[in-house]
Amino acid sequence: MTPEQHEQLEAICKTFLAQRNTNLVFLTGAGLSAESGLPTFRGSDGYWTMGSVNYTPQEVATLAFWEHQPWVVWKLTRHLLHAIQKNDPNIGHDSIARIDRILGDRCRVITQNVDAYHQAAGNDPDRVYEIHGHAFQVRCGEDCQYPPKLLPLPASVASPEPELDMSSADLRCQNCGGFLRPHALFFDELYNDELYYLRKSLNAVRKAGLLVIVGTAGATTLPQEIVETAYEKGAFIVDINPDRDPFAEKAEERGLYLPYKAGEVLPVLALLLA
Ligand code: OAD
Questions:
Q1: How far out from the chain centre does Cα 243 lie?
Q2: To 10 degrees, the CA torsion angle through 41, 46, 51, 52?
Q3: Ligand 1 atom 37, closest CA
Q4: Does any ligand 1 atom lie closer than 6 A to the CB of residue 205?
Q5: I need a surface site. Which of 31, 43, 155, 266 has the fewest CB within 10 A?
Q6: Interior CA angle at 134 toward 25 and 224, to 5°?
Q7: Residue 132 annotated to the active site
């Protein structure tokens, strides 16, 4: 970070801290976990870029595909899950957790990541809104109960065995016998309040004095609405991403765009907010 950028960030933090009645909202994406060793989605080694021999992930991670070939959806999900299990939160997650401890109820984390690294780093789980789901939870694929019940990962899914035995009894819903599905938002599904923190996220950002965006390409609709809302409400916007993303322009106008890795900026932010 240049001395000028540091000065600007410091001024934003000071103004935010003086406000007292506003929130700091983090909006995080796959770029935050890249420094843990997890591939992003749209980067050159990303899940969505690499695709698979038979189908693109955009085809597979859909309700339509789930209904016809659930084993293919599980295969992709387990690939992601095993990468999450093999790695750990990094200094960026640790810094956000430190800020959460400093600010307490003034802090919210809205994350697109399903890796649960924010909670593992020490964020208060009640202040982490996982808008795309949670890799260590499943639910009934038939939506047989309302409100939907989130369940821990079945042993057969969690196991490091490369092949998933689709006849395992633990893959079945105990209520209706249908297949359990990953608790993740598919491409052809909509955000909602019950499972994906839609209203909570929008309410949090309406109260934001500072929105810090970390490591997202900005390709999904709720994050776009979150940034737009913060912008309309007049919050400071800080965007951290080594590659320019669609939010950089708003950040330059209302705060700061920082073209650096999350792990280079977030420890500094934690010091400035202490
Ligand atoms: P993407 O893979 O689309 O974008 C990752 C962003 O992180 C890119 O803009 C990178 O430039 C940036 N990045 C890479 N390394 C970084 C680092 N060290 N520090 C900061 N930024 C870095 O991931 P998302 O935007 O999170 O949804 O993707 C959003 C959603 O699209 C995902 O949650 C997933 C996918 O479809 C679901 O699975 C429902």
A1: 18
A2: -120
A3: 132
A4: no
A5: 155
A6: 40
A7: yes
pTM: 0.95
- What order do you get walking across the sheet with 107-111 strand by strand? 128-130, 107-111, 23-28, 208-214, 236-240, 255-258
Query: Of all residues in the chain, what percent are helix, strand and coil, respectively (each to 5)?
Result: 45, 15, 35
Mean of the pLDDT values across residues 178-206? Answer: 96
DSSP state of 170: G
The CA–CA distances, whole Å, from 253 to 38, 190, 205, 221, 234 equal 31, 30, 18, 21, 11
CB 111 near ligand 1, within 6 Å? no
pLDDT tens digit sequence for 88-124: 999 999 999 999 999 999 999 999 999 999 999 999 9
Ligand 1 contacts CB of residue 245 (under 6 A): yes
CA of 113 to the centre of ligand 1 (A): 9
Indicate which atom in ligand 1 lies nearest the CA of residue 243.
Answer: 11
Backbone Cα Rg of the chain: 19
pLDDT at 272 over 80: yes
pLDDT digits (tens, 9 = 90+) for 149-171: 999 999 999 998 888 999 999 99
Catalytic residue among 93, 118, 132, 134: 132
Give 49's pLDDT tier (boundaries 50, 70, 90): low
